[in-house]
Each structure stands twice: as structure tokens, then as C-alpha cells.
Design brief:
The protein is of the alpha/beta class. Helices cover 29% and strands 34% of the residues. Strands 1, 2, 3, 4, 5, 6, 7, 8 and 9 form a 9-stranded mixed beta sheet that branches. The N and C termini lie far apart (93 Å).
């Protein structure tokens, strides 16, 4: 009888509908402020940032014991690499420093190519308050030989107003904006040799 009762409990519990927990998606909306730079007649092609694993759409957190995990039932609205790459592109356009800025795949022989790596895009729980962390390493290369004229690793931490995912999205929006502002400010301050604007597109083979 005891076995039968246990069997009936198992059967009945399996028939109870399981509560469905939908995945919540959160947008990161950076709003960087970039001052205008002295115009140069050069184009910049930006390649999408290479994300370190595991920075995809699942939202990553880091704990104090070096543990990396995912926030359940939560995702970013788009890939972090796309969010940061687009914000950087928009910031360089807004600076009015360059004659043209776009996706490197869409520009024919851009004068400069900007490449980089998204190194952090996560919630850091190792401190109080928790923080949103955005870090990227980028390089600006110029000329036919793609010589590096500037590179930098830029990171910003923004504290969360409270310990929930909506607050993380708000803090990450600010962190991305600050990182992009810093990067754009340094890139637009680069002084290019006179030859870059006049000779950079010349093909030595004629």
C-alpha cells in the first residue's frame, strides 16, 4: 500500500502544470557625449568587436570566488558586441572628425581600420554595491600596411542602484557610454601625419 501511495503521488505531481517562466530581455541604451574634433579627410572602417566567451546574449555575472554564472530567465536584447560596436561607430560619426565612418566591410579601402575585443560585459558581485563592468581593447590602424597609430584598453564600472537585472541594464548603459566616450575622445585626438590624408590610398603597384 505504501508503494502504491507513493506511486500515485508521483503520477499526480507529474500531471500538475509546471509554471512557465518567460525569458526577460533587457536593452542597453548608451548615450555618450562626444565633443567635435578637427576634421580630417580620412575614412574609418570599424570591424565588429570580438567578444570573449561567454559574452553573448545570456547575461553574465561574476562572484567573489572567481565564479562566472548566468542570470536565469534573462537575456540582453542583442549581442553585447553589436551594442558596443554600434555605440562606438555612432560616437565617431558624431565627433565630425572623419570624412566617413562605417562598417569596414562596407567601405572600400578605408584610410583607417578600427579593431578590438570586448573583454568584459558583466555584473560584478564581488563588491558592494554590485557593478556593471564594460571593458574593451581597441586599436586604430592606418595606411596600406595598417600601422598602429593608437591603441588602448578602456574599462568603466558603474554601480547598480539595486540588485536586480533592470538596474543592471541601466548601469550597463552608463558604463558603455563612458567607455565609448573615452575611446572616441582618444581616437579623435590622434594626430595623423600629413602623408596619411594624401597618400594613404595610393597603391604602390600603380
Amino acid at each position: 500500500m505504501r508503494c502504491l501511495a507513493l506511486f500515485m503521488i508521483i503520477v499526480l505531481s507529474s500531471c500538475v502544470p509546471q509554471e512557465y517562466a518567460p525569458t526577460a530581455r533587457f536593452a542597453v541604451v548608451p548615450n555618450p557625449h562626444v565633443p567635435s574634433g578637427k576634421p580630417v579627410n580620412m575614412s574609418v572602417g570599424i570591424r565588429p568587436l570580438d567578444p570573449l566567451m561567454p559574452y553573448k546574449q545570456r547575461i553574465v555575472y561574476r562572484a567573489a570566488d572567481y565564479q562566472i554564472g548566468y542570470i536565469p530567465q534573462s537575456e540582453w536584447a542583442e549581442m553585447p558586441r553589436d551594442t558596443v560596436t554600434r555605440a562606438l561607430l555612432d560616437a565617431l560619426v558624431a565627433s565630425n572628425r572623419f570624412a566617413d565612418v562605417g562598417d569596414a566591410a562596407d567601405l572600400r579601402n578605408p584610410d583607417c581600420v578600427l579593431t578590438g575585443e570586448l573583454r568584459r560585459f558583466d555584473q560584478d558581485r564581488s563588491s558592494v554595491p554590485w557593478q556593471a563592468v564594460c571593458e574593451m581593447r581597441i586599436e586604430l590602424r592606418v595606411g596600406l600596411l595598417r600601422e598602429a597609430v593608437w591603441s588602448g584598453t578602456i574599462v568603466h564600472r558603474e554601480p547598480l542602484a539595486q540588485e536586480d537585472t533592470a538596474a543592471l541594464a541601466a548601469a550597463m548603459s552608463k558604463a558603455v557610454a563612458r567607455v565609448v566616450e573615452d575611446a572616441a575622445s582618444q581616437i579623435t585626438a590622434v594626430e595623423f601625419p600629413e602623408r596619411d590624408a594624401s597618400e594613404i590610398k595610393e597603391d604602390p603597384n600603380g
